[in-house]
Structures are given as structure tokens and as C-alpha cells.
Fold each of these.
Amino acid sequence: MLSRYSFIGGRRRGKRRGEDDAAMFVDVYGGRLFMLAVTIIGLNLLDAWFTLLFLAHGGREVNPFVQQVLDFGPFTFILFKTVGIGLCVAFLTITKNFRAARIGLITVLVGYSILLCWHFFLLSHLDMTAS
């Protein structure tokens, strides 16, 4: 899965021979995949920011596990969310040539996009003068 070339100096972009399986590990991941990963992490940070904004204006966290993390403070919450999604995206990036990983990346992107639409909907109904 990882080699000494995974981060610097790798050349393996895909299969070497026609008979090789397309689902293999590579050393070079590509700019599009990098942008996808950065986009997912950015959407994750926006989700965290909106969550803190809504909590500051009287909202409540319905996920009890996330609420326990929030009880440690906003910095811990953002760190937890960022490291958590960062590790997941890193794993999906490393396994990008496997069908399940590609489905996972697209699912996470679509899920966060829908979640951000929900946040924008809630924001349009938020009374910013309260609190």
C-alpha cells in the first residue's frame, strides 16, 4: 500500500502491463484527486464552522458522541473533525484505484455538499440578532 516512493519521487501512476489488475496501489495520485481531497477537507471545516455558529445561536448537537467531543471545547472539536476526515480521505486516496474507494470519495463529497446546502438553509432562517 505504501512504499518509500509514496510521498517523494514516485513514478507508478497505474498498471505497468496490460495483464495487470487495474485495482493496484500507485505512488503518484494526480492533481484532480488532490483537489478532491482538499475540497472534502474544506467542506468538513465549513461543516465544523457552521456547527459552532448554530450552537452559539441556540442550536443543539443531536449526535451524542459529537456532543461529548464538543464538551472539550471548539478547538478539540475542530481538531477531532479535521484529523478524522483527513485520515479517512488519506486512506481513500491511497486506495484510489479500488472501486470501493472511488465510491467512498464521491459519496463523502456528495454527502458534505448536501450537508452544506442544509447549513445554508438553516443559516437563511437564523436570527443573527439573537444571542
Amino acid sequence: MVEKILKRLVIKSYHINSVKFSEKSQICNSTLMIDKQITNNLLDDERIKDIKINIIKPKEHDIYVNTIMDIIPISTKVLGRLGEGITHTLTGAYVMLTGAKEDGFQMAEFGSSEGILSKQLHLNRAGTPSSNDYIIHFDVVLENDYPFDRKLPLAAHFACDKFIQSIRNILKDMDGKDFHESHEFLEKAKPNKKKVVILKQIAGQGAMYDNMVFPKEPSSTVKGKSIIDLMNMPTFVSPNEYRDGAIRAMT
């Protein structure tokens, strides 16, 4: 029997050579410009005391950071749903979310990762920036008066996602012909071939040990379903959904 194409995913990447603060957020000539006043629009959760955004240039990693909560790529759907259609993504720049309470209590369980960034973050690995990438450091200071439960770190994740969405909205409008690289991924039905399933167990026990699946945008939290709220039940994820950011690791 003939192979049948079930889904087609095209990921177009736009490389960023520089990141800087500006009067408004935009992408121009491979430079990502970030609105220097954008944090004023992100302090809408009473659990959040303050947010600081810092641009970390390549090779400038000898700085102190609070515990690293996530490294997040900047990607957005242009056509279709997760796992199919067209996705635009940035390379050369990634967001690093860190967080702590006012009194210095770190947003971490079972060991935190605050300290000098060069000693806490392994670069040039799957899931981390390369040594030549820019890191947009999104640091959240949380109010002391709230208990350390799921809602506290989630407030930091949601605020960070709101910031990233402002860049995603710009990325959506990038000319589809101006990409630096384009990759096509096809999911095929292969009759009479072996069926392969990869089992992956992800954390889901609370606070920092949570994961979102199937968000609206790649590697996002918006409209995502918490693995805890799903009672840690098995969830089927296709290869293209996985490639397209269907799992937002929040551990």
C-alpha cells in the first residue's frame, strides 16, 4: 500500500544578530528591539512585586541570577494548529525566566539554581542557548505574603508568556519569504510498517514540578493544560506536535 501524508509542518526560522532596548518592540534587519517600558504592562498580578528584563550578550555570562525556571524559545503559529501548518521561530535569541520572592526565597523545589550564570547554565546543549546567542533575562520578584504553591511560580510563567506574546505577534507578520532557514516535517501513514511509540514520563506533582501540554502557541502557557490537572494520565503527542512545542516544561 502507498504511504499517505497525514500532516505537514513547516518551520521557518529568522535569525537574530542583536537584541536591544528601544521605544517600541519590533524586528528590523535581524535586530530584535524590545520596548523599554514593556514591564509596565506586565505587573497585573498581585503576586508579582517587580519584573526586570536584562539583555545578556554572548560571552557575558559572569553575572548573578535567581534560580532558572525555564529557557523558552520564541515561536508562533502563522497557519494551522500545533503540529501542522506554518510556524515562525527566532534563532539567536532566547528567553530565560528566573524568579525569587522579595526575601530571596528561590522559586525552586529540591534544589535551586541561583548563582553565577556561567556556572549554572550549560550552553550549547539541546534545550539551552548556544554560546553565541543572546539571552533575554526575564526576572520576576514575587510578593512575600503569598504561600509557595502552584499559583506563585505560575504567575511568573504567565507574566513571561505575556511578554513573549508581544514578540510572537511581531513574528507572525514577518514576510514568509524572508526566512533564513525553512524545514518541512511530514507525518505519514505507512501501512504494514512497525508502529513506534516513545514513552516519556514528565513531572507533575505541584509547584515547580508542572508541565503544560497543547498550549495555543508553541512552548507557551496560554490555554495549555497542566499535566497535574490532567491527573498525570497518559497523553498522546505526535512527532510534529512535539517538534512544534506542544510540551511546555515548567520544572
Amino acid sequence: MRAGSKHSRAGRLIEVGIVAAFLLVMLYIASVFVRVSSGYSETVESPDYVVRLQVLNGCGVVGLAARVADRMADYRDGDMEIKVVDTDNFEIRKVVRTFLISRREDLRPAEILAAKLGLDPGEVVFRPLVNNHRQVSATLVLGEDFETIRLPGKSGWE
């Protein structure tokens, strides 16, 4: 009889172990379900405008467009997000004053950017790009006065 009682004890221990493992698995599944169903949400303020910016060097200073693009790349605040999508040289090498061209009929994003740069928003002009494959929404043409424009720094616009 003793041998039978050992088997029943061992059997009970196995049953208790299986039930405990089952309960742990169910608790884990329930906790995952609660996390997924309640979700993790974070409020992210999206900017009013996204500007896909082309930076062109119009004054002939070697590497200027790339340096300015680096300072402006991936800038984001409550008003706008800037994505630099192209840098190149402007067809004219002796541009005296830096200016901004809107590639979209809605001038507002380019005007806001002009104000941030310290340019006159009233001087933003609209000129659409033919074959605008990069979906450029504004073009910044750097002139000989490039040192006077305000660029974003670590703590915002300088």
C-alpha cells in the first residue's frame, strides 16, 4: 500500500505543478492582453506644417549649402518640421540677398520659415518646380548675406 500512496502523492504534486504552471501562463496572457488593449499612448504634438526644403548655394562659398542643410536637417517645433531633401548650387553664383521660394501655392509654410530665418516673409515668391520628384515645398537660396540669417541651434532658432 505504501507504494500506491507514493504514486498518488507524486501524481498530486504533478497535478498541482501543472495547475500552477497553467495559472502562471494565464496570468501572463491576461497581463499582455491588458497592456495591448489599454495601449501605450503618448501625445505627440504634430507641427502645423512640414517643409521639404531644398538648400541652394547662390554665393559660391564652397560647401555652404551642405553646412546650412546640416543645421536645418530634421528641425521640428510646434510650427513646422523641416526635412532637407536636396542641396546644390544655384544657377547664379552672385546672389546678393538670401531668399526663399515656395514651391507650393500655399505660401504660409515658406513665410513662417522666412520669418524664422530672419528674412522678410513678404518677399517669399511662388515658383513651382517642374518634375518635383523630391516633393520640395520650399527652396532656400543662400546669398552673399548668408551670415545674417538665423539658423536653428541646439536650443531653437539663434
